[in-house]
Write a structure and sequence with these properties.
CATH architecture of the largest domain: Orthogonal Bundle
Shape: globular
InterPro entries: FUR (IPR002481), Fur_C (IPR043135), WH-like_DNA-bd_sf (IPR036388), WH_DNA-bd_sf (IPR036390)
Radius of gyration: 17 Å
Order of helices and strands: HHHHEEEEHE
Pfam families: FUR
CATH topology of the largest domain: Arc Repressor Mutant, subunit A
Structural class: alpha+beta
Largest sheet: 3 strands, mixed
Strand content: 15-25%
Number of helices: 5
Keywords: Cytoplasm, DNA-binding, Repressor, Transcription, Transcription regulation, Zinc
Helix content: 25-40%
Mean pLDDT: 88
Low-confidence stretches: none
Main location: cytoplasm
Family: Belongs to the Fur family.
Amino acid sequence: MQLNQALSILKEEGYKYTTKREDILNFFNQEDGYRTANDVLQFLSGKYNGISYDTIYRNLHLFSELNILESTELSGEKHFRLSCGHDEHHHHFICKSCGKTKAIKSCPMNLLNVDFNGYLIENHKFEIYGLCPKCN
């Protein structure tokens, strides 16, 4: 997702533009992979003296709700990244060291549906965690 597209989504949904929000989105635009609220805090603390963790976390969750960011949990902590923009259904491999991701085009639900006869599955999430070739 591009920065202008993300800012347009905020505006369309009735949220005001702030330089902090733009700077948070710029951070994710520069990074490749999942990052924590603490990563964002470290990035912004030089520019915004006294910026709070709560401010960052609230914005990250807002961006996640608006599908500007994707989120996952790694080692008990929420991690975020820009939405990858794939229109088709897919999943991800996530490197536990650097946070980079690789799209997985096949879906295990295609094999598991036989185990859920009579069930209404409304959603699912499938992620694979490990080390990418660079970190291995």
